[in-house]
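Reviewer has doubts. Consider these tokens.
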Amino acid sequence: MTAFINTPAFKALIGLVIFYIGLKTFAGGVKSMGNSEDLQSFIIFTPDMMFLRCLVNFQMKQIVALVSSGVLPLPSAIAAVLGANIGTTGTIWLAGFFVSDGVPTGATRQIALIHTGVNALMAATLLPFVQPIARFVGKF
């Protein structure tokens, strides 16, 4: 029995169970706040908040919980994920500043530019299709 408990598969399974319980607990707490006007006015994303969406990096479990509780509409969640993906490019620029002792140069700059460009291009390409993507994902 001890050999089974020490296997990586068992530990991964226990981790998934704990994650699921935490996600359900979080979703239940958010669901109880779903009718709060203050919370809804804070979470509703408007186009003029695009820069804020790029800076805020939501964790996927929080977005899933907000969508499942009905507080955050699915199209807004998809747009938030696209914005968070662009926001992650700040990490590579920050690392570039530390590696290059200032503005990134050479390969560091190329990597940061490509990472930022690909994420921005992906968001710009997918943003017009947020509604069809939401309808497709909503079927599941």
The chain has one domain: 2-138. The CA atoms of residues 91 and 115 lie 10 Å apart.
